[in-house]
Amino acid sequence: MAARSLRIGITIGLREExxxxxxxGIKQNALxxxxxxxxxxxxxxxxxxxxxxxxxxxxxxxxxxQYPVRTFEEAKDNLDVxxxxxxxxxxxxxxYVRDHGTKLVSYCCGPEYVQRMExxxxxxNLGNAVFINQQYDAIWVIPQVVETSKHYLGMLRxxxxxxxxxxxDPMFIDASTSDFPHNGEYRPRGTSKRIxxxxxxxxxxxxxxxxxxxxxxxxxxxxxxxxxxxxxNADRLATENVxxxxxxxxLDLVKEHKIxxxxxxxxxxxxxEQTDIVISHQWGLALNYFYFDVCWKGYPLVHNAHLCxxxxxxxxxxxxxxxxxxxxxxxxxxxxxxxGYLERQRGLISRFTPDNASLVEAYDRLLDELMVSxxx
Length: 376
Known about the structure:
It comes from Trinickia fusca. By secondary structure, this protein is an alpha/beta fold.
């Protein structure tokens, strides 16, 4: 089969007309994938397909000339492939696209097994009725959710699951920091460092407790090295959760008023205005846009994400002592070559970006396999 240009739709689910791209990573994911597919030498036509009733207006936070958005009704008759990524289509919409020869891909970039498990055990409302689509032509799963969700997805959706490359681009973090001093990039500032912990704190995968313990261990070792610790997305935990608040009261950081539990902030602003070093921890989600945002801007990232262990200051698993050593390593040594660190991080991250031709080619091969397996 000769390689050809494809008309590709990627679903998003707008919540409001001017929705921030920093609410969660799902729309960023759709746009990064769109940018990568547009880089193909085959000149694919890529459209974002909104699956909600929210109007598409100029308030969107991206260039709709480069990344056009259509409703499902507008797009449904002009697609060779529909990649369901940021918004789920219905059973009736599934029948329509399949009846009209469109190939349907489930692109999984969230820890769906863990989220569903938590919903079942804790009664957590995911905001939608249970609809398990079993009519996909392919399921594509990014590396960080393979371990937890691959077999869950394949069994329930009755389709072979394929691991696909992770994609990221600096376009949003750079656009968001264009008016900040030094474009929001790290600059040395004193010997006593401001520490940030910016986990979402909405499930067990990325929670703030281990980063706080790492900061506590470092503070007990060298109290003068830490000016303050900010924990974002944690004000509710500190004021409403007895288990969390009760645990925190045993820490020196709390007793000596060196830590604050604050609300939600957009990553670029908090990095530029409040941060010298970031501590992060994950459990089953070892790639994340947040890591790349932090490292791209040159901030020291103390983390345990083994799928990008060459970035930042890596520690193993849940090792608080090692994490504290890496934190103090960043405190004492990062500023000696901060600009070299920034360039090194960008070089390492480039393997995940649409500028990487081999990544573009990998997705073209995935599309080839899709079209061949579907009988085209």
